[in-house]
Amino acid sequence: MVRVKISPQHGKGVFATAAIEAGAEILTFTGPLLQRGQFQHGDYHLQIGDDLYLGASGKADDYVNHSCEPNAGFGKALALVALRDIAKGEEITWDYSTAIDEEDFDGFPCQCGASACRGVVASYRRLGESDRERLAPWLLPYLRLRYSRAALKLAI
Ligand SMILES: [Zn+2]
Questions:
Q1: Which of 14, 32, 37, 75 is the most exposed place for a label (fewest CB within 10 A)?
Q2: The listed CATH number (1.10.645.10, 1.10.240.10, 2.170.270.10, 3.40.350.10) that belongs to domain 2-155
Q3: Cα of 72 to ligand 1 centre, how many Å?
Q4: pTM
Q5: Mean pLDDT per segment of 10 residues, for the chain of length 156 residues?
């Protein structure tokens, strides 16, 4: 369904080898479970918990790039699903801010090229209210839990 090749935006990327229907599962992220201090700054890592990260799997999931207007998102746990119909040959992207939520993460410049590009890839907590609301359905499970707890506290 997908393969890794050179992306015009960001080095390597993951591309659809056939049309993918909206709602279909594209791939699942896997890799060794790591905590802070167990990887270097530049090493591949995906935050999946307060102090829990997935390291490199060596497979396509290591190469899925960020976009501020992505065509995929986390629908169920660590599975990326298509947010809309994706054409054969299109690059698969997801919004990294639906996984990153570190207090001390300053973000890095975004070059996704989307017309609605936020200009920076930042922690979820640093996004504006409207972006947080828009992205809420695609958050990783640990962030759904974190922010539903926060919402409950506000409501009490
Ligand atoms: Zn962007």
A1: 37
A2: 2.170.270.10
A3: 14
A4: 0.92
A5: 86 96 97 94 90 95 96 93 97 96 92 94 95 94 89 73
Check residue 138 and give its pLDDT.
93
| Domain boundary assignment for the chain | 2-155
Put the strands of the sheet holding 46-49 in their side by side order: 33-34, 52-54, 46-49
Q: How far apart are CA 103 and CA 45, in angstroms?
A: 16
Give residue 118 CA to ligand 1 midpoint distance, Å: 5
- How far is the centre of ligand 1, averaged over its atoms, from the C-alpha of 66 (Å)? 7
Cα separation of the two ends of the chain: 46
Cα 109 to middle of ligand 1, angstroms? 8
Q: How far, in Å, is the centroid of ligand 1 from the Cα of 31? A: 26
* Residue 77 in tokens: 């746990």
- 86 CA to centre of ligand 1 in angstroms: 19
pLDDT of residue 154: 73
